[in-house]
Amino acid sequence: MTLTFLGTGTSGGVPSVGCGCKVCHSADPHDRRLRSSALLETEHTRILIDCGPDFRQQIMPFDFKPLDGVLLTHIHYDHVAGIDDIRPFCVFGAVNIYADQTTVDGLKVTMPYCFASHLYPGVPLLALHAIQPHQSFVIGDVTVMPVRVMHGSMPILGYRFGPLAYITDMKTIDEAEMAYLKGVEVLVVNALRFEKVHHSHQLVDDALAFAQRIGARQTYLIHCTHDIGFHDEANSRLPKNVKFAYDGQVISL
Hints:
Distance between the termini: 5 Å
Number of helices: 5
Strand order of the largest sheet: 6-5-4-3-2-1-14
Structural class: alpha/beta
C-alpha cells in the first residue's frame, strides 16, 4: 500500500496570494503546497482522500484509471471544491463518494446539478454514501475505519487504514476515539504552523503531542501554511521520526 501526498497545504495553499514573504517566493518545490489531499493505492485499489480545488492539477501526472472511492473529511471548500473535476473518471462508471451525513447533505446543496431528478447531460456521475464513525467498510481490498475528530466545534472525519491513519483539520479529539487509533504505526496529521494559536487547527506542538499519544513510529505533518518556514529548516526543528510532508511525496506501508 502506498500513500501519495497530492497536496500538503492549508486552505489558501502556498504560495499565498499577494504574499511577499521568502517562503512564498522560494524556488524549492518542497515549499510549494497545494491544498491537502492524498491518493491511497494498492495493487488493485485506488482511493482519493479529499478532493479540493487543485484536484485536476494534482491528478494529471498519474495514469488514467478508475477511482474506486473518494473519502471526504468534511464539507469545507478546500476539501471538496474539485469534485466536478472527477467527471473524466465517470467513463469507468459512477464514482463512489464516502462522507458523513453533514458532508453528503452539503454536496447536494453546493452541487445540486449532480443530484437532480433529471441530470444535465455530461455532469459527473456520483454515488453518495453516508458513513458513520467507528463503522468500518471496504473499498476494493482496503478496509476503512472512520474516526471522529473536532475541527474547532465542527465534527469531521479522519480515516484509518490498518497501520496508517490520515487526519486533517483537527483541533481536538475525544479520548474515546483513541481506542480506534491504537496500534497506528504511520500517522498523517495536520499542523498549521509553529506559533499563533488557531481556533480550529492544531499547531506543530499540538501535533507532536498527539503523535506521542498515538505512539506512531513515523508521523507526517500536513495542512501547513507558509508560516512553517522553509521546508528543510522547518524539518530540522522536529524529532527524527516526524517530518513535514511535501507535495508528491510517496510513502509505502
